[in-house]
Specification:
The protein has 11 helices and 21 strands. It is α/β, with parallel strands linked by helices. It folds into 3 domains: 33 residues; 208 residues, P-loop containing nucleotide triphosphate hydrolases (Rossmann fold, 3-Layer(aba) Sandwich); 182 residues, Ribosomal Protein S5, domain 2 (2-Layer Sandwich). Keywords: ATP-binding, DNA damage, DNA repair, DNA-binding, Hydrolase, Metal-binding, Nucleotide-binding, Stress response, Zinc, Zinc-finger.
């Protein structure tokens, strides 16, 4: 009998699991099929069939119309930009995972959220597993987040964390971060696949049972993905990504997953020495201030989620001493810029083969959608010819390899934002219907060559109008002088 049991155990199929993301497979492979990591697949236990039997239910099933929805209403965090991304606020029992690169401002933003919630008399528990309580206290003092209803605990053990939840009974729980908390019941160090899965599952279970909105801070890998098993993103209800360049104060918070609201919204924040401040109207950050038009600049309108942002593209073209000219970019997609430069030379007749070309954005904004192609092309052409674009004009359109200007989505929303900031003319793709946008004149262009001619004609009209106004002013002065002499 013992020999038979040993033989059956030996014959049982075994599974293999990735130590990085938790992906499982029936046979060993050298590279994970989920996260593409090499040498991370290890042998696990034998695969066994399900043995779970029916058990008692926690609550009887009832008609969906009888379910109380008031307990699931979102409660605002008092930070408008974050509420916009969340879909109105934090839902009781919801678990939010906030991820981002080190130093991007995750902890500062959550400390501000904890302070706002505590100011209305709701108990908030902030559990820090990366810093000491004194370090967090100093930051809270600097950003003005001290409050008697804000409780702080420095713990790295999951059991102690749950004990603090029992003692404080908070209305909001913040864990910073999920990768640095470990359970004594699970083998492995903090941050491992098993540890992260157990910590997230335990915190999620407590949040659902007690209706506590919970925010987990998550680390990211060098590729920008959330560290830990992929199951972590499935366990939580909302996944927020905090983005920002270290050289810029602008921070963007966008929803990657949201069970309670939209996933196409973005929140804008300004991270400074005194904390993080929301930016309800960030468009002015991405425009430079010139008293007169400057060659090599063009303005476009990008859509971040459903929010239009007016941004400026700058280009500099200079003769190159190199056999292979340089192509440097900042804030724009380098591959798309290279394509636009090729189309501009081939279809627009702008010589670039022996010149260094630099393209950048203003204010640290990153423009990745194809809508900015036309603005990039016009900025480069303006720099080559050393002629500024007319004042008050924007450019919208995707440039194809044949030189055509393709339609873009959300044209009315983009033009309305441009008109609000004082722009009065817009180059738009042919066939676009920008009706209903007062204060702005749409100039349809079918291709890049037509857009370049339209800019030249508009500049000539502007120069003629300026010359006419100057002549009228001169004649008026002469008339006054003559009248005065008489």
């Amino acid at each position: 009998m013992a020999t038979s049991k040993a033989a059956s155990a030996k014959a049982a199929p075994r599974s293999y699991r990735c130590a990085e993301c938790g992906w499982t497979t029936a046979k060993w492979v050298g590279r994970c099929g989920e996260c593409q990591a090499w040498g991370s697949v290890e042998e696990g236990g034998p695969v066994t069939g399900p043995r779970t039997a029916a058990g008692p239910v926690t609550a009887a099933a009832r008609p969906i119309a009888d379910v109380d929805v008031e307990t699931a209403r979102a409660k605002p965090t008092r930070i408008g930009e974050l509420d916009r991304v969340l879909g109105g606020g934090l839902v009781p029992g919801a678990v939010v995972l906030m991820a981002g690169e080190p130093g991007v401002g995750k902890s500062t933003l959550l400390l501000e959220v904890a302070s706002k919630v505590a100011r209305i008399g709701s108990r908030t528990l902030y559990v820090t597993a990366e810093e000491s309580a004194g370090q967090v206290r100093l930051r809270a003092e600097r950003v003005g987040a001290l409050n008697e209803h804000l409780f702080l605990a420095a713990e790295t053990d999951l059991g102690a964390l749950l004990g603090h939840v029992d003692a404080v009974r908070p209305s909001l729980l913040i864990v910073d971060s999920v990768q640095t908390v470990a359970s004594a019941q699970i083998d492995g160090s903090a941050g491992g696949v098993g540890q992260v899965r157990e910590v997230a599952a335990a915190v999620t279970r407590v949040a659902k049972e007690r209706g506590i909105p919970t925010v987990l801070v998550g680390h990211v890998t060098k590729d920008g993905g959330i560290a830990g098993p992929r199951a972590l993103e499935h366990l939580v209800d909302v996944v927020l990504q905090v983005e920002g360049d270290r050289s810029s104060r602008l921070r963007l918070v966008r929803a990657v997953k949201n069970r309670y609201g939209p996933t196409d919204e973005v929140g804008c924040f300004d991270l400074g020495e005194s904390g993080i401040v929301e930016l309800p109207d960030p468009s002015g950050l991405f425009l430079s201030r010139h008293s007169f038009p400057v060659p090599g600049t063009a303005v476009t309108v990008a859509l971040e989620g459903r929010r239009p942002l007016v941004a400026e593209v700058q280009a500099l073209v200079a003769p190159s001493p190199l056999s292979t000219p340089r192509r440097a970019t900042s804030g724009v997609d380098a591959s798309r810029v290279a394509m636009v430069l090729a189309v501009l030379e081939r279809r627009g007749g702008v010589r670039l083969r022996d010149a260094d070309t630099y393209v950048a954005t203003v204010g640290g904004v990153r423009l990745v959608e194809p809508t900015t192609d036309l603005a990039v092309a016009l900025a480069v052409a303006s720099s080559v010819r050393d002629l500024p674009l007319p004042k008050g004009i924007i450019a919208l359109g995707e440039v194809g390899l044949a030189g055509e200007v393709r339609p873009v989505a959300g044209i009315s929303r983009r033009l309305s934002e441009a008109a609000r900031l004082g722009f009065n003319r817009a180059l738009v793709p042919l066939g676009t219907d920008p009706a209903g946008v007062p204060g702005i004149v749409a100039i349809p262009v079918p291709d890049l060559a037509t857009a370049l001619r339209a800019i030249a004609n508009t500049a000539e009209e502007t120069d003629r109008a300026a010359a006419a106004r100057a002549a009228e002013e001169t004649e008026a002065r002469l008339h006054l002088i003559t009248t005065g002499d008489r």
